Amino acid sequence: MAKPVIAIPIGDPAGVGPEIVVKALASDTVNKTADCIVIGDRKIIDKAIALTGAKLNVHVCNDSKSADFSGGIINLIDLDNIDMSSFSYGKVQAMCGKAAYDYIERSIKLAMSGEADAVATTPINKEALHAAEVPFIGHTEIFGALTGTKDPLTMFETNGLRVFFLTRHLSLLQMLGQIKKDKIVECAKECIAALERLGVTGGTMAVAGLNPHCGEHGLFGWEEVNEITPAVEQLKAEGYNVAGPIGADSVFHQAAQGRYSSVLSLYHDQGHIATKTLDFERTISITNGMPILRTSVDHGTAFDIAGKNMVSEVSMVEAIRLAAKYAPYFVKH
Fold first, then answer.
1. pLDDT surpasses 70 at 1
2. What CA–CA distance (Å, rounded) separates 95 from 275?
3. Is the pLDDT of residue 66 over 60?
4. Judging by DSSP bridges, how do beta strands 35-40 and 73-78 pair with one another?
5. 213: left (phi over 0), alpha (psi -120 to 50) or beta
6. Measured over all CA atoms, what is the biggest interatomic distance in the chain, rounded to whole angstroms?
7. 33 in helix, strand or coil?
8. Same fold for the domain at 5-152+289-329 and the one at 155-276?
9. pLDDT above 70 coverage of the chain, percent
10. In this structure, which of 17, 27, 68, 300 has its CB flanked by the most CB atoms within 10 Å?
């Protein structure tokens, strides 16, 4: 059976992306689960191989048809967009921000055309994107624009625990204004549909509580009484398999033990703390709701250790593994 083809943009060349890519592609786990095509710059990849000592040879190709998926090979689409005379690790550089965008753009084209089954992304730097005058703040916005997706949906997965987010980058005060019945109902339906697109059917989605002990019937807040519980009741009435609200101090543990198939977290840190405490390196971001599947490491460019062969490739390996795991089941729009 053919392995899924995963496109991997190397991220910001000044960060740890190139290092984690070559380390991951040298691992048995990746070689057994996926055929990979890297999008980057040959000079940067050669430097990363020399730095890490990875036992790999570079095969420059233009597409998946000209790739060599035998062992010990990095299939590289070389965009040749880095001037090594002005390049340096660990610094914000407009050249690197533009290069990172170009790598992502090419990887999306591969997936949209069907040459790749999914994309597994590496860290980029928001300041470098801005310096390059790239009109997007991050991966999600780039993928949304280039795939024509208005509102991509993010799911975290680590060790079988799947977490969605009702709200993301808001202050806690602003977040409270978003805890509304209709928003919860709509989001839960989108999350359940996203799971089905990944081949995850059955099981129960748990909706996390907001206040301590889910508010104790208004003693510690009224959001559960006025908004969250009515949302869960409406979802159940419409035939959706949901439960909640369930106290945030226990729901993530229960889901990790298999009681629930996923959790709808109500705000950014609520879900991030749970997944990253369970296993920081294996917490992977999966972007759904698009015509293509994207997974990503959930760490940054780590400029402080870039170019020093200090970074772990575990998160990159896991991002590729999950992309390969879900790609055969992914239902495209």
1. no
2. 34
3. yes
4. parallel
5. left
6. 65
7. helix
8. yes
9. 99
10. 17
Q: What is the length of the chain?
A: 333
Mean pLDDT, rounded, of the chain: 94
Strand-pair partners of 38: 8, 76
H-assigned helices in the chain: 17-25, 28-33, 42-52, 94-113, 126-131, 139-147, 172-176, 181-197, 223, 229-237, 251-256, 268-279, 314-326
- For the 155-276 domain, the top CATH level (class) is alpha beta
- Please report, for the chain, the start and end positions of each structural domain, with discontinuous segments joined by +: 5-152+289-329, 155-276
What CATH number should be reported for the domain whose range is 5-152+289-329? 3.40.718.10
Taking the CA atoms of residue 315, residue 318, residue 320 and residue 326 in that order, the dihedral angle to the nearest 10 degrees is -140
At residue 281 the predicted structure's pLDDT band, cuts being 50, 70 and 90, is: confident
For the residues of 247-315, what is the DSSP string, one character each?
A: -TTTHHHHHHTTS-SEEEESSHHHHHHHHHHHHSTT-EEEEESSSS-EEEESS---TTTTTTT----HH
Mean pLDDT over 46-58 rounds to 95
Whether residue 328 has a cis bond before it, omega within 30° of 0 = no
DSSP designation for 41: -
CA distance 297 to 11: 11
Statement: residue 332 has pLDDT above 70: no
More confident: 1 or 81: 81
Per-residue pLDDT at 289: 86
Tell me the three state secondary structure of residue 221.
strand
Q: What is the pLDDT of residues 194-253, one digit of tens each?
A: 999 999 998 999 999 999 999 888 888 899 999 999 999 999 999 999 999 999 999 999
Dig out the tokens for 321 from the structure.
């593994």
Q: CA–CA distance from 279 to each of 124, 274, 314, 315, 319 (Å)?
A: 22, 9, 11, 10, 13
What's the one-letter identity of residue 248? A
Q: Bridge-partner residues for 263, per DSSP? A: 163, 206
